[in-house]
Every structure is written in C-alpha cells, then in structure tokens.
Here is the input.
Amino acid sequence: MRVICHDCGKLTDFSLDAWRCSCGGAWEPVFQPGFDVNKLKTEDRSIWRYGELLGLDVKTPYQHMGVGWTPLVPSTLYGKQVHLKLEYLMPTGSFKDRGVNPMVNQLVHMGVKSMVEDSSGNAGASLAAHGARFGIPTQIFVPDYASPFKQHQIALYGVEMIKIAGTRKDTEDAAQGAVGSGRTYASHAYQPAYLAGQMTAAFEVWEQLDRKAPEWILCPVAQGGQFLGFWFGFSRLLAAGLIERIPRLVAVQSEKVAPLYQAWKAGLDDVPGIIPTGQTVAEGVSIAKPVRGKRLLQAVRESDGLVIAVKEEDIILGQQELAHSGYYVEPTSALVIAALKILVEEENQVSNVLLTLTGNGLKGSPKKHG
Ligand SMILES: [Zn+2]
Here is the structure.
C-alpha cells in the first residue's frame, strides 16, 4: 500500500512499524484507482462493494462483518428537508467500523501480530470487536471519563482495556508508549487504511441519492476521519466526472474543545491545538489537536465549507430534537443537529443537507445529561 505524508511530501510503502512519518506527520493513502462504476460489486451491500476502489492490498475482506451500506433517510429538522445517514447502525454501533474494518483487513494482510489503540470509546469498541473476530491480541487505552457503557462494550469483546486518568492526550500518550515489540498502533487517527474506508460513505451517499451529491454535509469532527473521507470520496467522484461539485463540508465541534474552529476562524493553515475550556458532553470530540489539522482546514476551504462550534446546552437540545424525530443518538452525534440550527439561521439558501449520525444513543451516559 502506497502512502504519502502531506507534512513533508515523503512517498513510501506503508509498513507495520512506521505508523507515522519520520517527520511526525500522518500517512495518507495514495489513491491509485480512479472511480469506475464498472468496478462496483453491486451484489455486495457493504463497504466491500467498493473493494476495488480503495487502493488497499485487500480487495475482499478476510472476515465479512457487514460494515457499511447504512440507511440514508429523508427527514425534516428546523423546517428543512434533510437526509440523515445512519452511521450508528453498524456492527459496533458507530461509524468507526467503516474505517476500522478495512484497516484491520489491511493490517492482517501485512501480518499484524497484536494491536494497540487509544479511544474515548467508539474506535476502541470497533477495534476490540475486530481483534476478537480476527483473533488478534488487542489493547485498548481509554480515558477514565469514557462512558461506562462504552467501557463495558470494549471489555465484553474480551480484549485488554486499560483506563487512564487525566486528559484524552494522556490516554493517547499511554497507548503510544505501549507500541513496539510486535504491537502495532492500530490508530484511527493515524492509519491510512482507516481513511480509505471512511471514503466509502461518499460513494454510498452518491449511489443512494441516485448518483448525485448533496449540497451540504455536516459531520462532528475530532480527528476528522469521516470528514476527510467525504472529501476524498467526493473529490474522486468529481475527478471521474460523476458529480458537478464537491458538497460544502461543515465540521462541527463543541465550544469547549474547538481546535479546528479556532484555527479556521484565525485563518491559519494548520491547527496548533488548544487547551480545552472544560469537559464536553460530546466526549467523542475531546481532541485538543487533530493530527491531520492541515488537511481538515484544506477540506473546509476547498469545499467552500464552514466550521461551527456549538454550545453544550444546544448539543443536548439537538439530541432531544432528533429523538422527537425517532432517532436515538449519543451526544457527540447531536452536534450536527445543533449546527444545522445555526446554519439555517445564518445561510438563507441552505438546502439538500446531509447529516451524519455517528454513534448509537445507547452508548452515552444518561447521568451526564443532568
Ligand atoms: Zn513527513
């Protein structure tokens, strides 16, 4: 698998040991195959219908777990017709499976012996499930504030879970310290195959909308794998002449942890990171410095998008609003509903909006709602 570092421009073959570039940058897949509708395996209703188009060494999975091809449902929110992409309807209850499944298949192809990851819960649960399914020893580091339901889920898969006190960054540092001696950093933030998998959401949406792109897409953004996946996927559809323009990509964060928002507002080209002003109920976006900050800002700007930071109380209201439409998501997912309200107020002509619903409501901690 060919990868590139966009921080220094290095191009190389991906290896299990070098989980990031020597300059510290994150590897990105070099997408070789152009998007060709004749390469779709249309009988396969999972991410692997696009197996020939991902640029991975694996074209068909070693283990088929039914990841992807999530429902796209029309709905009305704040007076606007929108489409909801139910990414929480995956084997482990979150959108993370869309990236972790191809990532683990790629790592297995490369001979991975054991895996380490740090996560506020959803990525950890997804990797734990894959570790169990593939029989690969797996360690998951979680911050001790992570939802007990997510911690229970990770533990149930039978992997080793290590709780870390302190910040989300402390958990990341602990996991990275455990990498080596045959243990691979199977990180959703760093692994290039994870990004390749997230790209399939764009392809699915395009097929589900009768081969059209939405005008707007709203995503919660922490490390931004889903966000970049949409950008990569729709960029490839554009390059193939299959859509007229890339959707305007809107990244949504909590006001309490908003590194991308602050960098975007200040007109920066990279995200220097921030000191969070408190703990957010949207625990899935508690990342003070995303590793692909430059690319996230580029995706926002090149798609004529926006970054929106929302208040804590609006996250809870957003969750309730969505529940009144029949959908039960965790608070992190509800960021996009709060952002939609702001977008509708600020932009008169908003239409054809897609919202991603990333995590099942059963994963969240009701006690945090106060
Ligand atoms: Zn580099």
